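Late entry, evening session. Most of the bench is empty. Finally got around to the prediction I had been postponing all week. Sequence below, unchanged from the version circulated by S.P.
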Amino acid sequence: MRVPSIDLLRGLVMVLMVIDHAREYSAGPGRVADPMDLSQTSPLLFTLRWLSHFCAPVFALLMGVSAGFKPDRRRLFTRGLWLILLEFTLIDWAWTFNPLWPRKFWQVIAALGASNVILSLLLPLGRPAILTTGLAIVGLHNLLDPISLPTNYLWALLHQKVVLPLPFGFEFRTTYPILPIAGVVLCGYGIAPWFQRADAARRLAATGLSATALFLLLRTTNLYGDASPFTGTLQSLGNVTKYPLSLQFILMTLGPALLFLAATHNRRAPKFLITLGRNPLPFYIGHLYLLHALALLWALAQGHGPAPLSVRFGGIPEAFGFPLWQTIPFALLTTAVLYTLITHAMAPTPPPDNPPPRPNSAKTA
């Protein structure tokens, strides 16, 4: 089942993702390590990074919704394992251009893969129980924030961003802990039937408004759901915890995302974004390789000599970069190239102009 509004939203956040990843190569001297650090960031830098916050939770929600249209336990399980494998092969190599790079990252694709495995194991419980479980995880997982087990690999995978040692000089950072991502995937699975109802837009709008209102309540009162306090400024309102996704982070992003789905439900959508939204994995992998290759070429063009083997992780020359305003056209060019390649790959093969004549069996005999 294809729902245009889902493909549209997925395609839109993928463009935001490319802008954010292109941004990582900008700045040059004086680059800011954390764009969300309110003591160092600029309004433009903060805004570009904040917009990218929609990507991970929207990917997770829509993955759950798509799984809910046609539940297949075996497919979910095997797809989850394949996503984890891709994270530590093709995707890892795209970030580093070096299979032996010593630090390995448990990022969003691996977390989504693990969430698929979890969902496959929970399918026998039925949709209401899965939705309830997802809501409980999303709403209550911040109660686990005080638990810090910096040497426990399982806990790090589930709920703590930390760097852990691996054999042979490697190390492992759990950038996207599984628990809140899995909670969002389960919620997406639970609401999948809404898209087949006549009142889908109303349900999505009501839920989106409720999530946004709850975010504003929790954020402005510092009551619960995030370790980073609200200090009264507009930037601090959006400066919520991403690793792992806090309750406030999820409400802040998925509230507007649900409102977007409600507003675009059963509406015509741009083919460009629809095409991207229907091909998320090849686009995701392709944009990492293309952005990284372009950055290496840019480093050479700026006279840095042999470009570093990895521009993104630990090898960026201090003087390398480009003005932040160039991030958007740089990202849009990357997106246009990948769209062209995807469209060409999807195009049906035309039949030959002059097919060879079929042999006459009677004459042959």
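Two things to note before I forget:
The CA atoms of residues 152 and 202 lie 44 Å apart.
The chain has a mean pLDDT of 90.
Will write this up properly tomorrow.
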